[in-house]
Write a structure and sequence with these properties.
Elements lengths: L18 H28 L23 E4 L2 E4 L5 H4 L2 H13 L5 E3 L13 E4 L4 E4 L9 H8 L4 E4 L1 H11 L5
Parallel strand pairs: 2-3, 5-6
Antiparallel strand pairs: 1-2, 4-5
Length: about 180
């Protein structure tokens, strides 16, 4: 987790980000984000989870979205490659955090994706334990080609993506669907 000390909406990389709304209500929204973060952290700890934190960085307001950092399964990590320059600056911070976890023996393997493959971590790729597979959403944030990389890194899992939907959404957005 990353405390939302510097969280703000200062740019727009998706339809839900509205810098003007933040400017109008940012003080209230920032306080709400801090309360929600504290409540979530407390609930996780109360449930018995070990919570690791990274330090917030002033010029990286989206660093708080740590689920986007990587896909993690069975002590294996596939680090994210972010599509937008505003988030690409986070990659080195998340890589260092996972390297530190590996040094402490908490994870076994950390892998990097090639620069041409975009995957925004657990925000777009989630493990389905009952079916023993990943569900990968692809389109304007993550590329379908990331599925093969997750398959190879997490050998006991299969990765499914909705290929026809991915092709349609990428084509409609004029984006890369590889």
């Amino acid at each position: 987790m990353c405390p939302p000390r510097h969280f703000a909406v200062t740019y727009s990389i998706n339809p839900w980000m509205d810098p003007q709304a933040w400017a109008d209500r940012g003080g209230n929204l920032h306080g709400e984000a801090q309360r929600q973060w504290s409540d979530l952290r407390a609930a996780l700890i109360a449930a018995g989870a070990a919570v690791e934190t990274i330090e917030p960085t002033p010029d990286l307001p989206d660093l708080v979205f740590t689920a986007n950092a990587a896909v993690v399964l069975d002590r294996k990590v596939v680090l994210s490659r972010f599509r937008y320059p505003e988030r690409q600056k986070e990659e080195a911070i998340f890589a260092a955090a996972f390297a530190a976890l590996r040094e402490r023996g908490l994870i076994d393997d950390v892998s990097h994706l090639p620069a041409e493959i975009v995957l925004e971590g657990a925000g777009d790729c989630i493990w389905d334990a009952r079916r023993r597979l990943f569900w990968l959403g692809c389109g304007f944030r993550s590329f379908r080609a990331a599925a093969n990389r997750c398959d190879r890194r997490c050998k006991n899992a299969a990765t499914r993506s909705c290929k026809s939907r991915c092709k349609r959404s990428c084509a409609a957005a004029g984006r890369h669907a590889a």
